[in-house]
Automatic annotation (TrEMBL):
Predominant location category: membrane
Entry protein name: COBRA-like protein
UniProt key word Translocase: no
Entry keyword set: Glycoprotein, GPI-anchor, Lipoprotein, Membrane, Signal, Transmembrane, Transmembrane helix
Signal sequence bounds: 1-36
Location in or out of the cell: Cell membrane
Gene of this entry: LOC108828305
Biological processes annotated in GO: cellulose microfibril organization; plant-type cell wall cellulose biosynthetic process
Membrane topology annotation: Lipid-anchor; GPI-anchor
COBRA C-terminal domain ranges (all copies): 232-427
Length: 485
């Protein structure tokens, strides 16, 4: 009786393990093929809500709010650009908190001239510092939207729009069509506007509720495949138990020999570096990115170092390095997937939140900088890196240093999937294990050995440290002694 029960539970747990495995395989295979959605944030989207606040003699006034419901992808500077097609001959009389980029042909209007007469208006946010009488709540951030997990207070953007030559009741109004969203580049696809239950607004003292005349929603989703960007980051690996540093794959983000505009790079030893990085330009021109010459040509490298082994814990050091001379990343974030994240014990100097894209699978962590301390990743150079250490508690059932288990399964930086080295190149445990049995003879000799090694290591660190900060890529052997500690 008892044994049959335990057998059936073990079958069930095996089945659920299988299910998890299948989900994982499906998600990772879709990731490599088309990546129609983000496997680590399957629900992620940007939702726009149009609330018609009042009817006017020839149309309506609406407040449009964009919510970034993506856990870690944000819209960086120069911000979002929103477009749509009017269903009829609508015009925009005025806008608050945003503007259209072109007015279009308003020649048939006399006296009062609309803000925009185009059939397909293109709207951008206003810049910070806009006069207060042209602002509304959540506007005027230059189109920058932070991610939902990192800063929900700055994950929304609003503007007010006054529409003319439109329907004036909820029966005659026609919702706009063909929404497009650039964030700031391509990648987003927007669905059709759907009329939903009117939004209810509660006054700040919560004593009165008002509601919109009519509300419609538009949902846009991101796909890295649609964005068709070359990768923007790569991963390198090392460990205390093997001296090999596995660098980012060659040409991970482009190739040096192909000197197309994406392949241009800069040698850090270039004389007059500063004048090359920021040549004198006219105000307002945007310079193309300029990365340091490396084998991988990625603007960002994430290095994962398996640093220490304790009886019940193990420690990882993460270093994010910026190789882009022309970009400071403010409010960066990274996402890492590793099975031991369900037993994370401590994380130093980064913020942490567990993401659970699938029920029961707690292996994904979002990490980002601490405000005013390291949330700003400076341009390439001596300050262009941020670091953290993570302490994991070993789950004896799964923990292992073998077969590259200690390395991450997946890394994202600012929502972009980073290129990993091929698994067969991972540093592996020397055969015979890294903690050999200690004989009596060795235990007498060991202290002597240790002292001499320590001296060696100190002199070694002094000579090697400048290198490791670096442009070391490839399987370079630079740490002959560290493996012994
Ligand atoms: C958009 O994201 C929100 C928050 O994750 C989610 O509740 C909603 O269902 C999503 N909408 C769509 C259409 O996927
Ligand atoms: C339009 O307004 C009427 C009442 O004025 C309401 O009954 C109806 O549900 C509304 N329709 C929509 C689509 O909001
Ligand atoms: C615009 O949207 C309509 C439906 O709302 C669709 O039939 C049409 O193909 C779209 N046009 C473009 C250019 O996407
Ligand atoms: C419409 O969007 C708002 C804001 O994102 C959301 O709260 C609401 O649930 C959405 N309505 C529907 C029916 O999806
Ligand atoms: C240059 O680019 C072409 C096509 O993108 C590719 O086939 C070729 O291998 C590249 N050359 C080098 C040296 O990487
Ligand atoms: C990055 O930030 C530093 C310090 O704020 C500033 O001096 C530098 O010009 C910025 N670089 C770029 C490319 O914006
Ligand atoms: C995932 O694991 C971390 C670390 O043990 C824990 O803090 C977090 O609450 C877990 N999340 C879920 C959804 O179980
Ligand atoms: C690790 O986390 C899992 C799931 O939260 C839990 O079942 C297990 O006991 C934890 N292991 C250790 C060693 O804390
Ligand atoms: C370290 O790992 C590499 C694979 O990346 C392997 O070739 C090498 O033999 C390993 N070193 C030792 C001492 O096992």
């Amino acid at each position: 009786m008892d044994s049959s029960v335990s057998r059936s539970t073990s079958v069930v747990s095996n089945l659920s393990f299988l299910a998890v495995l299948i989900v994982f395989l499906i998600s990772s295979s879709s990731l490599t093929s088309t990546e129609a959605y983000d496997a680590l944030d399957p629900e992620g989207n940007i939702t726009m809500k149009w609330d018609v606040m009042s009817w006017t003699p020839d149309g309506y006034v609406a407040v449009v709010t964009m919510f970034n419901f993506q856990k870690y992808r944000h819209i960086p500077s120069p911000g979002w650009t929103l477009g749509w097609k009017w269903a009829k001959k609508e015009v925009i009389w005025s806008m608050v908190g945003a503007q259209t980029t072109e007015q279009g042909d308003c020649s048939k209007y006399k006296g009062n001239i609309p803000h925009c007469c185009k059939k397909d208006p293109t709207v951008v946010d206003l810049l910070p510092g806009t006069p207060y009488n042209q602002q509304i709540a959540n506007c005027c951030k230059g189109g920058v939207l932070n991610s939902w997990v990192q800063d929900p207070g700055n994950a929304a953007s609003s503007f007010q729009i006054s529409v003319g030559a439109a329907g004036t009741t909820n029966k005659t109004v026609r919702v706009p069509r063909n929404f497009t969203l650039m964030g700031p580049g391509p990648g987003y696809t927007c669905g059709p506007a759907k009329v939903v239950r009117p939004t209810k607004f509660v006054t700040t003292d919560t004593r009165r509720t008002t509601q919109a005349m009519m509300t419609w929603n538009i949902t846009c989703t991101y796909s890295q495949f649609l964005a068709q960007r070359t990768p923007t980051c790569c991963v390198s690996l090392s460990s205390f138990y093997n001296e090999t540093i596995v660098g980012c794959p060659t040409c991970a983000c482009g190739c040096q020999n192909n000197r197309t505009e994406s392949g241009a790079c800069l040698d850090p030893d270039t004389p007059h570096l500063a004048s090359v990085v920021s040549p004198p330009t006219k105000k307002g021109t945007i310079l193309p990115p300029l990365v340091q010459c490396t084998r991988h040509l990625c603007p960002i490298r994430v290095h994962w170092h398996v640093k220490q082994n304790y009886k019940e814990y193990w420690r990882v050091k993460i270093t994010i390095t910026n190789f882009n001379y022309r970009l400071n990343y403010s409010q960066w974030n990274m996402v890492a997937q590793h099975p031991n994240f369900d037993n994370i014990t401590q994380i130093f100097s980064f913020n942490y939140k567990s993401l659970t894209p699938y029920a029961g699978l707690n292996d994904t962590a979002m990490l980002w900088g601490v405000k005013f301390y390291n949330d700003f990743l400076s341009e390439a150079g001596p300050l262009g890196n941020v670091q953290s250490e993570i302490l994991f508690r070993k789950d004896q059932a799964t923990f292992s240093f073998e077969k590259g288990w200690a390395f991450p399964r997946r890394i994202y930086f600012n929502g972009d999937n980073c290129v990993m080295p091929p698994p067969d190149t991972y540093p592996f445990l020397p055969s015979g294990g890294f903690r050999p049995e200690v004989s009596v003879f060795a235990s007498v000799l060991l202290p002597v050995l240790l002292v001499s090694l320590l001296l060696l290591r100190v002199s070694f660190i002094l000579t090697v440290l400048p290198l490791t900060n670096d442009s070391v890529s490839g399987s370079v052997r630079v740490r002959p002694w560290l493996g012994l500690f």
